[in-house]
Amino acid sequence: MADATSDLDVGLLVAAAGFGTSGLLLDSSLAAETEMVDLNCTGVLALASHLGPRLVKRGRGGVVFMSSLLAFHGTPRAANYVATKAYIQTLAEGLRVEWAALGVDVIASAPGPISSGFAGAQDHGAAGLAVQAAGVVTRDPAALGASHAHHAGDEGHDGPPGSNHRAHAKLNDRAERSQCIDARDDESLW
Fold this sequence. Notes:
By secondary structure, this protein is mainly alpha-helical. 51% of the residues lie in helices and 8% in strands.
C-alpha cells in the first residue's frame, strides 16, 4: 500500500475493511480469530501509521475509522469481534486529540447494522441471520457516508443519526455495563 500511494496526495483515509466472527469463542478457530485481529486492528494501525504523517505534513486531512455500536460493551458470541471494534474506537478517540492541533480530523463511525454484505462475508454468518430474524433496521451505506461527511470536524460526533442507533447509544450511555452485556446474551438472537 505504501508503494501504491507514494505519488498520491492523500487527504482522507477511510479505514473500512474488516470482518467479524460470531459464535462461542470456544468453538472458533484461533487462526480465524487472529486473522480478524490482524485485519481489523493491526491493518488499521498500519494505515494510520503510514498515512498519518503524510496528512500532518499536508497540514490538513481526515481519518474515518469504522468502529461499531457494539464497541462500547462486551458482547457474548461476538467477544473478539467487539474487542477489535473497541480498539478502533479508542484509537480514534486518542488520535482525534493528538492530531487535531496538526490539522487532521479523526473520527470513529460507530454504526449499528448497515446493508453492506458484511454478514454474508463472515465464515460464521449467525450475526447476520440474527439481525435479519430480529427485524433490525439496517441503514444504506450511502446515507451513513453522507451523515459523516456532514458531521466531519464536529467534536464528539462518532455515530450516525437515526432512531434505532440513538436508542442503542442511549442504552450504552445509561445502562450498567453488565446489563448491556446480559441483554446481548439473548439466545433467541443467535
